[in-house]
Amino acid sequence: MHGLYLAADEGGGAALDQVAIMSAIAGVVSLGLGLIAYLHRTRRITWLQTFADAAGRLFKRPAWVALPMLLFTTTILTAMLGFIWDVSLHIGRGRDEGPLANPAHYFILFGLFFLFIGGVLAMILPREEAGTAPGSQSGRIPVKITRTWYAPTGGILIAAAGLYALIGFPLDDVWHRIFGQDVTLWGPTHLMLIGGAGLSLLAIILLDWEGSAAPRLKRTEDGNLEPEDESLAGRRSAMVWFGRAMTAAGLVIGVSVYQVEFDFGVQQFRAVFHPMLMLAAGTFALVVARLLVGRGTALFAVAAAAIIREIIAWLVWGPLEAPHSVFPLYLGIAIIVEVLGLTPLARHRLWFGTVAGLLAGTVGFFAERLWVNAVFPIGWHSGFTTEALLMSVPAAIAAGLVGALFAVAVRGEPLPRPAIRRSIMVGFVIVAGLVTANGLSYHTPDLTATMQIAPAPDDDGNTMRTATITLNREIPDDAEWVQLMAWQGGKSDLDGLHIDELRKTGPTTYETTKPFPVGGSWKTLIRVQNGKEMGAVPLYLPADEGIGAAEVRAESDQPYGFQQELKILQRERKDDSPALAFGLASLVVLACTLAFIWLLSWGAVRVNRALREQAAEAVAVPHADATASASARRG
């Protein structure tokens, strides 16, 4: 869906003038950021520190935590709006004339640039002060950049998340030049774009808790710095709780971005992916929320996430006039996690995550299905329940276990031995790989369809038809979908998207329940998915000079064989691209993703060490005071 790039004469690669403009903008932003960093660290400007100090007083965090968090809140919401709008535009109107021709791209770029800037600010804000040890202004676990520059670990991770996402833009252009446009959310470079933004929530959580462990300093009347005697209640104020609970809501949204094709009802891969992705994402995010922030946070997080997603969906559908999306609710999983949190199991974090995953993958499946079948364009039919559970249960357990491990690290509790930690992470990657491989396993059905197509009254200038479809064999009633879909129809009363679940009128016959559009820019097809059978028949595809494709129009009383659906939905992809090159390019993207996950794991272990040092000091100080008092009494 994120078809960002279109050359003037082919469906791949941006026009070079637009590439030059975007490169120039990136260069100017980078130079400006570098100049601010230099001026701040050489004390030639004071406004940045003043602004950061004010944010620190508001959020009760060090300045190098508070200002990036304030910036992050704005930018991640901006990027999310741009992302949903962009997906919606490409569903409703097709590809655009280039990266600068789509208004949603500006929101995405703004959000990702400022995500990167927020991380850099966290890195450059701490400065060495007279009378303090090197690196003491950057928390307990600073990373030495130069002899006099120490950066917080969380800042490095946020900057890396933004950079990881931004790198996806030029790589996406290269990808499309080689392989053509893969008009789907799940294109490898598209996953880099959305993955960097989504996983940045973990980086901001790490920065927040790293800041909570940092020694708090105050300036005395003579200008020196000394430790501040701040009560624990001050650090756990309502503002801190609210900020962390909203971050948990952001995490719920962030890990849900991989499901957005299902939110619109134009998923291009098998239906079993939907429950697996939903249950794994919900388990991970809500286990983290409950264990980190406390009782009630899981329910708060799903409520806040639903409100944010509905506001964005309304803005895209209403004022911006693009197709509407729905969203996962996660209420069933939230209730499971909250109830489980009231049991003694909550004190045994890894077991808590494991059991939460097991219950989410089973009980949660049926609870979430109520919401999905009520509001989603394509529900969870009974035919795929067994396979969906076989995929969802291990994925949810692995996600719950990783979420619990992350929470243990961030809370500063003793971590399992390195061998156990690595086994959990490797097991998660293996489970994710296996269920993904199974989900990608399908074949084109040996089916033919014969249509009786009849005129219908036009709608807002769209040429409309109705149809009766006869298949050459019967499809089970519990198939995942037997539908007619039309998309990319442009701006109209139909919003460029039309989905119709076909009505079965006989063992092999179906009929449309409402008129469907043909003509213009609409792409209309009949889709069938039954288990691992997945295919489609085009009813109408417009001529497309950009990719050298002729018009396709189905006629009555003519048998048409089902085709591989991706060849219709991803019409712009190049058929002559070497399969080996595609596989190698995908492996490069996978390696980048695994490296980023490793970097987050490294950061979590470092933050854990900082929090454990803080806890040890909190125990040692009262003990030392008690010893001194006892000595005084003996004296």
Describe this structure in words.
With 635 residues, the chain is an alpha+beta fold. The chain folds into three domains: 1-234 and 578-635; 237-442, particulate methane monooxygenase, chain B, CATH 1.20.1450; 448-563, Sandwich (Immunoglobulin-like), CATH 2.60.40. It is built from 17 helices and 15 strands. The strands form four sheets. Strands 5, 6, 9, 10, 11 and 15 form a six-stranded antiparallel beta sheet that branches. A five-stranded antiparallel beta sheet has the order 8-7-12-13-14. Strands 1-2 form a two-stranded antiparallel sheet. Helix 5 packs antiparallel against helix 17 and helix 6 (188-212) runs antiparallel to helix 8 (238-254). The N and C termini lie far apart (78 Å). The model is unreliable at 1-9 and 229-235 (pLDDT under 50).
Spell out the key features of this protein.
3 domains; 635 residues; single chain; 6-stranded antiparallel beta sheet; alpha+beta; disordered N terminus; Immunoglobulin-like; particulate methane monooxygenase, chain B; 5-stranded antiparallel beta sheet
Give the proportion of residues in helices.
55-70%
Our measurement of the CA-to-CA distance between the termini, rounded to an integer number of angstroms, reads: 78 Å
The assigned structural class equals: alpha+beta
* Fraction of residues in β-strands: 5-15%
Cα shape: globular
